[in-house]
Amino acid sequence: MSAPDPPSKKTRVLLIGPHPVRNRDLLASKLDDGFALETWVPDDGKAALTDRLRAADAAICMRWDRDMPPAPKLRLLQLPGAGFDKIDFGALPGNCDVCNVFEHETGIAEYVLAAMLELSIGLRRIDASFRLGNWTGSTTRADPPHGELSGKTVGLVGYGHIGQAVAARAKAFDTRLIAVTRSPRDDAGDLAWIGTMDRLPDLLAEADFVVLACVLAPNTRHLINAETLALMKPIACLINVARGEVVDEDALYGALKDRTIAGAAVDVWYRYPTTDEPNIRPGRNPFHALDNIIMTPHLSGNTDQLWERRFTAIADNLKRFRDGRNLRNAVEWLVFE
User: Fold this and answer.
1) What domains appear along the chain, each with residue ranges and CATH number?
2) Could you tell me the sign of the dihedral formed by the alpha carbons of 58, 94, 17, 166, in that order?
3) Which of 193, 254, 267, 270 has its CB 3.0 to 4.6 Å from that of 300, i.e. a possible disulfide?
4) What is the pTM assigned to this prediction?
5) Is residue 226 within 8 Å of 248, Cβ to Cβ?
6) Selected catalytic residue, list 19, 52, 161, 243
């Protein structure tokens, strides 16, 4: 009688944090039985994190710093999102790959178009006024008209997944498209022009809408500040779907309050909820008191189809990791789009 086959070794994956843990079953449905999934949330305690990380071959989380327990077997840190500004690469094991995932560009691009339309037309204000019986703006009166997107110049700061998705949709509105990005590109495609970051002043001077779609890195922190905001047209609007710190907070508040620029739509912020302050204001300045800003709580990419797409991509990368194939979306610190 032959001896039974030894049990096969499973790839152990630790899911850390709310989004990975909430989507555990979704991820499991896309993997074979060669994977063992474990989860950790803060209520489980630090000792449990230490034990589970000690055995993990891969981890899925958005934050990694020097307070994390040792992870001697960890060879893959898979981010469940695109941004890696919360990852301390020096705190990871030396032979650990880091990969991110996108799939949010569809929702963010639709948000950007919605913001540009709202900043041009003002449906929120018009609806609220008309409900009170006010016919201001009607073609029955000689009031000033509302704006339109056609013919406007949209400036994209960053031309990666998000920038390209915005451009594809903005083109349908007959806008003129320009962009700056970190890497020189010979082919502008549907853009009027594309340049490297040294052409940012040109973009700011030409654009009616400036869309920030770059990652946060030392090179991009406070990329938009009092000096660069002063280069924008007084009728221009800023849309930030990148990271809050790409824009200097005090400079943005001052430009909106003083109407140095016409308006803004902001989805990424300077302060976020904590256990002690679950309803914290998103910045030091009272942006909520301004009437020329659209404020949303970092939700532009969080659509009803996002996580299906993301965890399909994550499952594919975990299989590549297990099988020794090339990983997708490997990232390195100091890389920015």
Assistant:
1) 11-103+304-323 (3.40.50.720), 105-295 (3.40.50.720)
2) negative
3) 267
4) 0.90
5) yes
6) 243
